[in-house]
Amino acid sequence: MTTTEYRRASTINIVAPIAFLWLIFLTPAAARSQDAFLNEWYKKLEAVDLGGLEKLIAPKAVFTLEEFGSTQTKEEFIDYMRKHGDALQSVDIRYKVELQWSNRTTVLVCYDFVESGPVFNRETYVIKDGKVTSAAQSRIGDRCDGF
Questions:
Q1: pLDDT tens digits, residue range 1-50?
Q2: pLDDT tens digits, one per residue of 69-105
Q3: What pLDDT score was predicted for residue 2?
Q4: CA 138 to CA 145: how far, in whole Å?
Q5: What is the CATH architecture assignment of 3-141?
Q6: 6: how many CB neighbours lie within 10 A of its CB?
Q7: pTM of the predicted model, to two decimals?
Q8: Could you write out the three-class secondary structure of the chain?
Q9: Which contacts (CB < 8 Å, 24+ apart) does range 27-34 have?
C-alpha cells in the first residue's frame, strides 16, 4: 500500500464513523428543533400573532405563493396577515410533516376556515437559526381528508 493509499484509507476510517454518529445524533435533534419551530409557527398563525410571527421570520425571507405565481417579502407577508387577520381568526390549522431534510421541512397543512371551508396546502420551509428564510406554498385542494 502506498503512502497516499494509506492516508486515504485512514481518512475514510475516521470520517465514516463521524458521519454515522452525525446521522444518529444530530439529525434527530435537528428534526425535533424543526418540529418545535413548526408547532410555534402554526400556533402563531392561528392566533394571528403578528409580533410573534415577525420574530420567527428572517429579515430577507421570501414567501413563494405557487398558486398565484408570486412572492412576498417578510414585510408583505406581515402586511397581508394584518389586512386579513379577521378571516384568519376563524381558522383551525392542522398539519403533518411530510419530509424533513437538513434545514428544509415540507408539511401538509389543512386550513379549515369556519366560514369558507377547508384549504389543503403543501408548504416547504427553510429554517436557519430558528427563523424562516424561505417558504413555498402550493394548494393541493379544497378538502382535508386524512386530517
A1: 555 554 444 444 544 444 333 333 344 455 557 889 999 999 999 999 99
A2: 999 999 999 999 999 888 778 899 999 999 999 899 9
A3: 57
A4: 17
A5: Roll (3.10)
A6: 10
A7: 0.76
A8: CCHHHHHHHHHHHHHHHHHHHHHHHHHHHHHHHHHHHHHHHHHHHHHCCHHHHHHCEEEEEEEEECCCCEEEEHHHHHHHHHHCHHHHCCEEEEEEEEEEECCEEEEEEEEEECCCEEEEEEEEEEEECCEEEEEEEEEEECCCCCC
A9: 30/100, 30/102, 30/103, 31/100, 33/130, 34/97, 34/100, 34/103, 34/105, 34/127
Task: Please report where in the chains the cell 428543533 appears, as a residue.
Answer: 33
Residue ranges covered by each domain of the chain:
3-141
Q: Are the beta carbons of 124 and 104 closer than 8 angstroms?
A: yes
